Amino acid sequence: MKLPSTDDKKITRKDIAEMAGVSVSVVSRALNNSGYVEQGKKQKILSLAKQYGYTPHPVAMTLQQVRSRQILFFCKDMQNPFNVDLYYGMIEAAQLRGYLVLFNAAINFDRIRDIMVDGIILQNDRLASIYAEQYGKNYFLPVVAASFGNQEKNAVSIPIVEFDMYEACIRAIEYLRKNGHRNIAYAGPYPRTDNNARSIAWQNTMRNVFKDRLYDYFYGIHYSELGPMEELKKFRADYMNPFSVEETYFEKGKIAANLIVQRNTDATAVICFNDEMAFGMIAQLQRMGVRVPDDISVVSFDCTNQRDAHYPTLTDIGVNPRYQGERLANLLIDKIERKKIAYISKLPIKVFPGDSVKNRNALV
Amino acid sequence: MKLPSTDDKKITRKDIAEMAGVSVSVVSRALNNSGYVEQGKKQKILSLAKQYGYTPHPVAMTLQQVRSRQILFFCKDMQNPFNVDLYYGMIEAAQLRGYLVLFNAAINFDRIRDIMVDGIILQNDRLASIYAEQYGKNYFLPVVAASFGNQEKNAVSIPIVEFDMYEACIRAIEYLRKNGHRNIAYAGPYPRTDNNARSIAWQNTMRNVFKDRLYDYFYGIHYSELGPMEELKKFRADYMNPFSVEETYFEKGKIAANLIVQRNTDATAVICFNDEMAFGMIAQLQRMGVRVPDDISVVSFDCTNQRDAHYPTLTDIGVNPRYQGERLANLLIDKIERKKIAYISKLPIKVFPGDSVKNRNALV
DNA sequence: CTGAAAGCGCTTACAG
DNA sequence: CTGAAAGCGCTTACAG
């Protein structure tokens, strides 16, 4: 007997029907366990299917049934452990509802509509806004997005599950103040002209403390040497397209560390954009002999699974990213299944204490 | 005019044909830019398509064309930065050949055949072996796998791109010896009875040095207190199913660090299973006041993108994971497109020096 | 209990 | 240059 190989054609219900001497309808009913089939025939069909290693053709089934029970997480940065956590949260929630979560990190949106899924989860506000702009007119595929509290004009309103970074940053400042810190700096990967909620919250709050020296304490990584207008122009050119730049937060953390040392800051604490950037920053500070938290305290956002694979363990302000992932998956599946949904839901924000903040109250 | 909404049916080529007063064939030709269509009609069709935001139905196209030009990377552990790097390598290579790489980390294989792709890349030897066992009989979907030099009986021979960890471990020992180390320990996540190439290479090489004290220097994390036979039995029960255990290499690294301190080792260096485990181990050693590399040197495998987001920067023996990813994608696409392929290809292994190894030769 | 038929949305060779 | 027809692999209501 010739064994099947890659060169053979895949076996179909029609082939089995011929071998069993019945019609495809009967084969379908037998295989799907639906409708009537004579016992003997059913046995025969099942054993033929097994013998020839029949597997259904998912594309045909999807076309026929209109649903694939698969959803997509579109997110270009899987280096960031926060996104990995989001993804695992989605997988778990979706599995409970019979859905599979595919992931794609392609360089751009070009082929996102080619992926055969019932709906899409976008990783952030900006992607949501671009997606809406690009596809808003033919908006049939259900879409939801993770949000981080950044202002983006969405042509069409995409439902979001929000981790409000403005509030989180306020909480970070409060936490540091409670621990006796007054001069609190900020390190982020974007220029101060960006509409990032974290950066805006810090500027709004710390302007009172630093006055016109505010930006001496702002470690915005891009183009920090340019004036604000120039900075904005350059920024738009290469950043507004979120596909153009690969996010290397580690690198940006290193640059922030270098700036901190160069400027010989009198800040006792830095709020860092996210865990990934904080890891890069702390490692680089340590390389230069700066001790965390003894010389400078660090707080960051996200609370990723990698917090305690670093020393010292980061103090984080965050949500549980897995929970955000679960919420997103359920929101999307609800939308797909035409259930009632809330367009905006906010996640509770918590402080996750680590070892990267020094309590200065103890210092008499 | 009523705007389209999620509740409307998606517009099809048939709808456009009706509006334009032509047949679907003409619409197809116009949209696909193939065959003859009268200029005026073509214009009309294109503008109708635009107006109504027509997008082709990917499922129907795939069914008709037999190819989706999408491939799948199946890998359950995206926490491991090595796999993330593999994935990015695949994306780049695939993009050049017009393919999209989807990713899935589902809990098991159950629905892997439902995903509508032209082929699958499996993340390691064991997955390859299980996949072959489970689906070997109906082997129509092209499959390739990343290999790490571990012995697994593959019922059907799946083409591999290999990072030979046996050789890598020998290289690690050589490197450490060149740097004046003699007592070289090993820390891995699996018991010594596992067929892991790294562990076997270390045992084969270091047995001469440690003699019957060999296992005092083996920080195999599972069941280390059990005898080898008991260990093997328990191990099989919960590990042989690679879906049953979530790989928490960070945690295992922590446990290894605790064992190192507990046993008060006289090893001057540890070879660690992979970067992720090394990160967890080093952080924990630092928490307990052990200095790396001053008190103990560390070498690991993989060479992931996160090496220098930690202090000290890891010394790695590795391949370029992005390159391995590229090779895998190209291998799979070659197979899909029925080109000639090599069933086994080995990657060149290199030493990537960091700051985690002390040169003891300098110590007179 | 069974099978012919229509249909999911698309493509493409072929007769006009 | 055009359109009816067959087909990709499956499902399901319906007449027997």
Care to describe what's here?
Two copies of one chain form a homodimer. With 364 residues, chain A is α/β, with parallel strands linked by helices. Chain A has three domains: 13-56, 434 Repressor (Amino-terminal Domain); 65-164 and 322-346, Rossmann fold; 166-317 and 351-362, Response regulator (Rossmann fold), CATH 3.40.50.2300. Helices cover 41% and strands 13% of the residues of chain A. The first copy, chain A, has helices at residues 13-20, 24-32, 39-51, 58-65, 81-96, 125-135, 165-178, 197-210, 228-239, 249-262, 275-287, 321-336, and strands at residues 70-74, 100-104, 119-122, 143-147, 160-162, 184-188, 218-220, 269-272, 297-301, 315-318, 344-346, 350-352. In chain A, the strands form two sheets. Chain A has a six-stranded parallel β-sheet with strand order 2-1-3-4-5-11. In chain A, helix 1 (13-20) packs across helix 2, helix 2 (24-32) crosses helix 3 (39-51) and helix 5 (81-96) packs across helix 12. The first copy, chain A, is elongated and about 85 Å long. At the A-B interface, helix 4, helix 5, strand 2, helix 10 and helix 11 of A face helix 4, helix 5, strand 2, helix 10 and helix 11 of B. The structure holds a DNA duplex (16 and 16 nucleotides).
Structure, briefly:
Chains A, B: Pfam families: LacI, Peripla_BP_3. By secondary structure, chain A is of the alpha/beta class.
List the main descriptive attributes of the protein structure presented here.
6-stranded mixed β-sheet, DNA-binding, alpha/beta, homodimer, disordered N terminus, 41% helix, 6-stranded parallel β-sheet, 434 Repressor (Amino-terminal Domain), Rossmann fold, 364 residues, elongated
